[in-house]
Amino acid sequence: MNFRTENRPVEPVQRFRRPADVFEALLQSIQGGETHARPTLDLVPGSPFLPFLEIGYALRTCLEKPVKHDYLLERLRPHLNVLIGTLPACIMPMGMLPKLAPLPGFRKLEDIADDEIRDWLIQEGGLIYGEMQRFELENYFDAVKPYLAPGGLMVDLGSGLGKVVMTAALTLPFTRCIGVELLNYRHRLAQERLVRLLTLARQGLEALPEPLTLETPLQLPSGVQANGRHLLDLGARIAFLENDMFKVDVRGASLVFLYSTCFGPLMDAISDKLARELSEGALVTTTTYPIKHPAFKLLEMHAPGTLSWTSVMIYQRVGPQMSVPASESRYLHQPDPDAWDARARAELLAMIGG
């Protein structure tokens, strides 16, 4: 398969002459989420992020004091196999920690246990945001469509601003597309984007010279044939849930999408969950991190720079459902500690103008 390597030039849709114009306008409307402003996490009593904020403040306090840099690196060094990047993004100057002072009673880093720091780093990795460009998603849906029957349920775990879910609902004839996102602000932005998408869809359909009916033949952006119901029922086929991916049952899904580039430390738990819940034949796709669970068969592996900027793997659920996790720990990686230490010290020195 010859994949696209960049976004093709597009012109804003000025008039809706045919359904293809509606599709193009809708796809253009959901681009650019990677540039959204990241609000800081709420520092208010009762916030579910208070334990996360407490540890984040303790780490950031050490980052901001050069005399504490050695201690900061000492506390991070045992957890390099769950650390995304060199230093945690949340504690950096443009991170998601509020700029206000920590609440009274927040502990110092010296009073926080190693297992708490490890759990914090795993959670912090899941807060990092990224998304595929339009041409990458076009490549992705071209790659998975041969394995999918018409209909079915598509689920995006960690759906962010909803770009993949809405693209899926436009591109392939899924019966339903659902996004699951933990962070409230991202869920809220996805809901707002969906409202704009459906408003634009209604305006585009009303402007067509010939009204679209439920049975009007329709070619989807992927080239798959469908009918007018695909656009007319668009709102009923998309839903966003504000929830933890581990608390949402994906039983019945025919495709689970994971933009898992920052999920490395979570991949064991995720793959065990999917092995328990998915039916035989269901597809799972991941980025960067492969699935090494016996319940999943690799169908395709696309190296970085082909389908997407990072590697993309397509798996199929095989065998009976599993009631217990696989016992093997499969995903943790271990960077060279000396090389990491040198990078971290260089970054810390640059931050203080050294």
From TrEMBL:
The keyword Transferase applies. Transmembrane segments: none annotated. SUPFAM superfamilies: S-adenosyl-L-methionine-dependent methyltransferases (SSF53335). This is Histone methylation protein DOT1-like protein. One of its GO terms (molecular function) is histone H3K79 methyltransferase activity. Keywords: Methyltransferase, S-adenosyl-L-methionine, Transferase. PANTHER family: FI06469P, METHYLTRANSFERASE DOMAIN-CONTAINING PROTEIN. GO terms for biological process: methylation. It comes from the Bacteria. Residues 128-194 form the DOT1 domain. It holds the Pfam family DOT1.
